[in-house]
Structures are given as C-alpha cells and as structure tokens.
Amino acid sequence: MTATAGSIGKVGPVQTVKARRSLGSKITEKLSGGLVRVFLIVVGLFWLVPTIGLLVSSLRAPEDMSASGWWKVFAEPSQLTFDSYRKLLENGDITHSLWNTVLITVPATLLVVVVGSLAGYAFAWMEFPGRDWWFLGVVSLLVVPVQVALIPIAELFGKIGLFGTILGVILFHTGFGLPFAVFLLRNFFAEIPRELLEAARLDGAGELRLFARVVLPLGGPAIASLGIFQFLWVWNDMLVALVFTKSGTQPITVALQTQVRQFGNNIDVLAPGAFISMVIPLAVFFAFQRQFVSGVMAGAVK
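-> structure tokens emitted (302 positions)
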C-alpha cells in the first residue's frame, strides 16, 4: 500500500504537467485556427492600403483627385483612366530617369554578388597570408556610415572625371555593398562540409571549377538574399544619387523629387511614376523569393 501511495504521489505532478501541456497545445491550436488567419489577412490588407491608394490615384484624372479622395473611385468606377500613364510615357525626364535607374541598379547588384561571392569563397576556403586580418579589415568597413564618405569620394570622383556619371554611382554602391556581401557569403560558405570540397578536389576540380560547380549551387539561398538586399537598396536610394548625379544621369527617385519641387501640381505624372518605381522592386523581390525558397528546398533534399 505504501508503494502504491508513493507511486500515486509521483504520478500526480506528471499528470498535472501533462494537463498543462495539453491546455497549452489547445490554446496554440485555437490560435492557429481560422480566426487568427482572418486577423492576419486583415492586418496585411491594412498595410496594403497606401499601395492601393497610390495605384488608384495613378488611375484618376487630376481634377478628380483634387475634388475627392481616392476611395471615391469605388462608388464611381468611371473615374479610372490610363491617361496618367500615357502622360508619364510622354515625359522624357521620367522615362529617361527610369532607364538610368536600371543602368545603375543592375550592374551595382551584379558586381556586388559576383565579387562578394568570389571574396567570400576565398576568405572561407583559400589559404593566403594575412587572411584573417584582411577579413577583419573588410568587416570593420561595415561600421562606416555612407554619409561620412559622400564628400571625400565626391572630391575624388571629381578629380578623376567620374562625378556626375552613372559609373560613379555604380562604383559607390558597389564599394559600400561589398563589406556586407563578403561578410554574409563568407560565413555561409564556411558552413559547407570540408569533406565535400575535398572530394571534389580529389576528382581533379580546380578552385574555379569547385567554386562554380559546388559552392555556388549550395550558396544559392545566401546569394539570392544578397541580391534582393542590394537591389532594393540601390533602387530606392536617393541620397547617393542626389549627390553624385547630374540632370542627365538622375535615377527615378531624384527625378520624382525634382518634379515635386518644380511642378507641385503635376500629380498626374508623380502618382504613376511613384507607383512604377515601387512595383518594379516588389516584382524583383517576389521573383528572387521563389528562387530563394527553391534553393532552400534543394539544400534540404541534398
């Protein structure tokens, strides 16, 4: 009887813990139900309200926007028109600045991804004198603010003839994007099993072939993330472009700011221009996101 009583005394707390766990699991199950999903959808739609408002405003005539808010279009759908986008395409400053943005963003992103990948692999798996000190120096550049380097680099570019050119903006963004790229990719490449690389070397693979055939496919998720961050940063940048560009090399961010300053009532051009400037990086983000997820799944299968 004593043993039975002791056993019952021991079982009691266990049953209490199980009861508590079951209560927590029930709460978690209820929180993950349809009500919470509906709440999250409502929150997501709430965050999309400014984007929807900008889209609707870009499809309304200037007189309609002056007379009422953008939400009035749901009661009067006849206000929707593509005349603003037609005027935007006829505005040479906006279309030229949009092309300048592409010419700046794409090379700056590709250079950071390519050079950062090569440097990250070198710091992770290649032996050379002072490797750790060089890597420490690169990482220390992460603490340098962009604002500190604007004036010195502007003076340097002025002396060598790069100030006011698209190439100068590309080099600036590449230089400030590389420290983070090297830091991110080096840490990711260092997690690749050494046995895998040694097996490839035993098969006769050189460093470049090893980098292209083994490291790059395994580093797809990190490279995709880096490409997303760099593209969004360069596309949405205004400070660097405002300092280093002139009238013929301005990207879309500076061109829209100039339109606001010079033509404050030019809303029929500003609204569609701002919407296009926002939609393109969003489209690139979702496109790279699919590649990111597929890279993660491929790594999981391997």
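Residues 62 and 268 are 6 Å apart (CA to CA).
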